[in-house]
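Hello,

Our lab assistant flagged a job as stuck in the queue for most of the afternoon. It eventually completed. Since we weren't sure the result was trustworthy after the delay, we are filing this so someone can double-check. Below is the sequence as submitted and the structure that was eventually returned. Let us know if re-running is recommended.
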Amino acid sequence: LARYKPVDVAFKVVGTGSVGMRDYVIYMEGNGADDPLFLQIKEETTSVYAPYLATKTVTTPNQGQRVVNGHRAMQLQSDPMLGYTRFEGRDYLVRQLNDHKATLDVTHLDEAGLQQYAEVCGELLARGHARSGDPGLIQGYIGKGKRFREAMLEFAHAYATQSRDDWQRFKASLA
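-- returned structure --
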């Protein structure tokens, strides 16, 4: 970043989840106009989960740092510009601007495609969670033998049953 110089700053209009928070885009140039860099500096406030967490689990005094820690734990490769700062008494996340929005229209998936999509999503989520924990603690909790696997299968079957029941109730409520 040392070779980049700020050229302009703009206030970014945010979505409904961030109304009232500050969000800026900084246009920077490195080796002239042919070497642009856009950084987003987005205000981060206390997590909505904070009231439900034990005080000892909140270890970051800066809310931007809390978000950065989450990104780094869950993503295989984080934004190289990812960071945090504080100014005027507010905490901010700093990252390279990525204004791409992409979604998958699941209505175009057949049953096999939806199954594959669910498997990929589950695998990515599991990998993120696996990277975010302490391996020694996880191994100690899981232990050895079949007990953990059997407990996970039992939970998965119960959850699948609950999901099917919920879906049936939802469909019935629309009728």
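-- support follow-up --
The delay was a queue issue, not a problem with the job. The result is valid. The chain has three domains: 5-96, 103-133, 136-175. The chain has a mean pLDDT of 88.
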